[in-house]
Amino acid sequence: MISAENISKSFGAQPVLQQLDLVLEPGEKVVLSGASGCGKTTLLRLLAGLEEPDAGRIEIDGQLVNAPGLLIAPHHRGLGVVFQQPALWPHLSVRQTLDFVASAQHQPQGSANLSDIARACGIEELLDRQPNALSGGQARRVALARALAAGPRYLLLDEPTSNLDFEARTGLNAVICDFVAETAAGLLYISHNESDVSQIGGHHVQLVGGRITKP
Ligand SMILES: Nc1ncnc2c1ncn2[C@@H]1O[C@H](COP(=O)(O)OP(=O)(O)OP(=O)(O)O)[C@@H](O)[C@H]1O
């Protein structure tokens, strides 16, 4: 499980997270909401290893990944992360992107698994495109496929469906729920959107005043 204990983070004089506790079990789905600017992305970046907390400790599957003087790199955390901006690798086609991720995880290139992921994410027709030839919605689906291709134990998603229409949102949420059901990955899903909350299910929590609360 992911266990974040007593996490505090400030930017300059601005406290963002204050003695926050969060637990995410394998196979568990948690949807996190909260006002704009309350610190949701900051929490995700801390769990991913892209920011260091000022105080507190984070463990992933029993391994301490963050503590004073210790920072385990993002790619050693077993996480699949999708941020609001897809940030695809501009020099790689979609197919090369998925193959690269799978080979970095020692999964066979071109495996049935990658075909399944591409089909589930609705990007089979896009495999030979470069990122600059994708629409915003297509780029988001590729970013999700890239995260799934790594076979993560935990999936951390920052508003993966924002700016998508209802049909596209519903389709992407189904892919995410299927992945969690099939792999028992833990899911932390940031969204303000009521339809995401109901489509994802699981637990719904809010970030208020730098801490996790029930809505
Ligand atoms: N690197 C940084 N330097 C200074 N301030 C930052 C930095 N990153 C985030 N902040 C500030 O921290 C606060 C929390 O930002 P964060 O992006 O985590 O919020 P959020 O809840 O994800 O917002 P949104 O829902 O609008 O995406 C904001 O006030 C933001 O301006």
Q: How would you describe the overall organization of this protein?
A:
- The protein is of the alpha/beta class and 215 residues long.
- It folds into two domains: 139 residues, Rossmann fold (3-Layer(aba) Sandwich); 60 residues, no CATH class.
- The strands form two sheets. Strands 7-8-9-3-10-11 form a six-stranded mixed β-sheet, sandwiched between helices. A five-stranded antiparallel β-sheet has the order 2-1-4-5-6, with helices on one face.
- It is globular.
- The model has no long low-confidence stretch (mean pLDDT 91).
- Bound molecules: adenosine-5'-triphosphate.
- The site of adenosine-5'-triphosphate has 10 residues, from helix 1.
- Adenosine-5'-triphosphate (ATP) binds next to helix 1.
What is the CATH superfamily label of the largest domain?
Answer: P-loop containing nucleotide triphosphate hydrolases
- Biggest sheet layout: 6 strands, mixed
Give the N-terminus to C-terminus distance in angstroms: 23 Å
Spell out which ligands are present.
Answer: adenosine-5'-triphosphate
Q: How many separate helices?
A: 6
Q: H/E order of the elements? A: EEEHEEEEHHHEHEHEE
**The CATH top-level class label of the largest domain:** Alpha Beta
Q: Into how many domains do the coordinates divide?
A: 2
Overall 3D shape: globular
How big a fraction of the residues is strand? 25-35%
Give the % helix.
25-40%
Architecture per CATH nomenclature, i.e. the level-2 architecture of the largest domain: 3-Layer(aba) Sandwich
Indicate the radius of gyration in whole angstroms. 17 Å
What is the CATH topology descriptor of the largest domain? Rossmann fold
Mean pLDDT over all positions: 91
What low-confidence regions span 5 or more consecutive residues with pLDDT below 50? none
Classify the secondary structure makeup into a structural class: alpha/beta
Strand count: 11
The largest beta-sheet arranges its strands as: 7-8-9-3-10-11
